[in-house]
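User: Modeling request: complex.
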Amino acid sequence: MAGDSVALVATTTTGPGILHQLTGVIARHQGDIASVEILEGGPDASRTYLEIKLPDGADALLAELRAMPIVQGIEVVQTLQRIYGKRIIIIGGGAQVGQVAIGAISEADRHNIRGELISVDTIPLVGEQTLAEAVRAVARLPRARALVLAGSLMGGDIERAVRDVRSRGLLVVSLNMAGSVPDAADLVVTDPVQAGVMTVMAIADTAKFSIERLKRRVF
Amino acid sequence: MAGDSVALVATTTTGPGILHQLTGVIARHQGDIASVEILEGGPDASRTYLEIKLPDGADALLAELRAMPIVQGIEVVQTLQRIYGKRIIIIGGGAQVGQVAIGAISEADRHNIRGELISVDTIPLVGEQTLAEAVRAVARLPRARALVLAGSLMGGDIERAVRDVRSRGLLVVSLNMAGSVPDAADLVVTDPVQAGVMTVMAIADTAKFSIERLKRRVF
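Assistant: Request completed. Predicted assembly structure:
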């Protein structure tokens, strides 16, 4: 199939330069690499996960990779996109992150049963700088589509971080809280369970819900 | 500092072969790449996140990367490990995943305040094959340390997947449920909130709790 994606785990010898050699072969096959993870840095063997978009089928690439002296084995696997899908990230204080997660997980369950694939990822954190860094880093997380800020007071550099990640296309939902973060968000929701549900609805292709069509953005 | 890690976002021209060129320069500096994400595949510019372990400082590498014709900019950022830390993955049915998440997030909050960094990631899923694939894929997720299976009936290929990921060093906690998965897990817990709390305690360096030292493995 043209424009197909293949995911593989390559077991290789260890050391610097391995990825350079693998990517050289992939580039010769016009492969566009979407994601790479180095899974283990053991003493004798290294396992590398690669997600590659290819203009043609993967057979020729797989054969050439298997023939490389550094390669001990190539296993074709499902892409992480196929398994874990889109990600919602919830950041803030433990009590509120937990309640938003309850709503988001429950709603994601309903959509995943109908063929969607949505994961709900969370981290409880304290402190303006720590939170601002975590917000900015969401833009570097693979498959992240929406961010929920779940707390009681957030502003300052967290607000600037929210504006940064929104400008990169991320949807940001904020609980109704003290501080300037709600002013910077796409959507403000008072009930944390509803905030989780609405965020899933906003990114689910199986839902009839669009933030652009809402007549108000504070609930 | 010797053995230091650097994380950077490289803005480059687009197309196959970019990663091959970047990794060539990194290999010449004896850099060991831990993680790569291709962040955007826009028409004119591509952003690549790279996490690199270096024997010496990063200055020489950064200067050489910045001088490459394909490179438009290099931004040094925090590593995802520094920001999101260890990951617990909760997989299963929505109602139970949500309750395990409540316990895990609340307990992670308490440890993160004391300097730990633990994220709690979840996906609600249905079906033996879907669940088995999601379990096996946890071994390909960066920074994943523990898996919680939250459901009422899991067995068959899910049990084999649990044994696979345990053999790769992942801690597996199961709710007390029907099916063969509890027999294959490191720890079986009946209350979902406690299952979340215990899993965080097991991977937190700030906790005095070790599964090896427990006198029973079913609670």
